[in-house]
Sequence to fold (200 residues):
Amino acid sequence: MAKLYFYYASMNAGKSTTLLQADFNYRERGMETMLWTAALDDRYGAGQITSRIGLLAEAHKFDPESDLWEGVTAEHRNRPLACVLVDEAQFLSRAQVLQLARLADEANIPVLCYGLRTDFAANLFPGSAALLGLADALVELKAVCECGRKATMNLRVDEQGRAVVEGAQTEIGGNDRYVAMCRRHFMQKRREAAQGRLDA
Fold:
C-alpha cells in the first residue's frame, strides 16, 4: 500500500538533496517519477529543484490553483509512475495535501513531500500543518545550529545579519537570508532584535 511521507527540517538540512537522491534511486531502477516544486520559488530558475551541493532536476510547478490529483493521474495514464516527489511542500494548500493523500490511497502511488515545518516566526506553514496531520510517515531531517545542537528553527535575518521579527510569512531569498538554529538561540536572537527595536 502506497503512503504519503513528509520529510521536514529547517533550512539547509539537505531536503532537496535528499529528494533528488530518492528520485535518482527510482530512475536508476527503471522506475518513472514525477517531480513538483512551488512556482513561487524561482531562486534557481522556475520549475527547477536545486540543491546546495549542485544537483538539479526539472520539475512541474504548482501554485494555489494547481490540481495535483488531475496532473499526476493524467501523467500516470501516459507512463506508470512509481513515485511522486514534491519539493517546497510547505507552500501546498490543505486541499492539495488531500489530493496527494488521495494519490497514495486510491492511485497507489507513493508521495514523498519535502519542506519546512515552520516559518521565521515559528508558525506552521499551511501545507506543513496539513502534512503533519495527514501524512502516514513523518521524517525529520537534521540540520545543525551554530552551537552544535540540532537546528529546528529558521531565523530570518536582514542585510546586517540581525534577526527579522516582523514581515510576510513567505519571503523568497537566498540562503543568506535565513539561518538554521536551535530553539534556544532562535528565541534569544528574536528577543535581542525586539529589544533593539524598542531601544531605537
